Amino acid sequence: MAETEKITINxxxxxxxxxxxxxxxxxxxxxxxxxxxxxxxQLSTYSIIVEPLIKEKAFAVGISxxxxxxxxxxxxxxxxxxxxxxxxxxxxxxxxEELAIKTINSVKVYGVLKATPEIRKVIxxxxxxxxxx
Length: 133
What we know:
Blueprint: H1 13-24, H2 31-45, H3 47-56, E1 60-66, H4 68-76, E2 81-91, H5 97-103, E3 104-114, H6 117-132
Parallel strand pairs: 1-2, 2-3
Helix pairs in contact: 4-5
């Protein structure tokens, strides 16, 4: 099963009551199933817009994983990365700040970024620098 992330939403009490009524009537097994179905429906509705954007902007879709060894390979090739992920980006704990600065030009994640606090700060600084140019 794909890794999931917990989200929190706020609903007004009347909408929540309607969801509970649908659950009670057997349309959904619980509130979560209703919310997941609603999200899937909206994503399906807008897929004609989202799918071309994913291709046009060359996003990696799913889970992208970078560790120290991979970034050292990038460094030896005198390259820098523009990382674009729709899903999850994992920057391993063995990546130090200096290596990240030398090998990562930009990061855009729609979804989840998993990284140490130090690497998150480096990524934020890199992205701020790109915006201010």
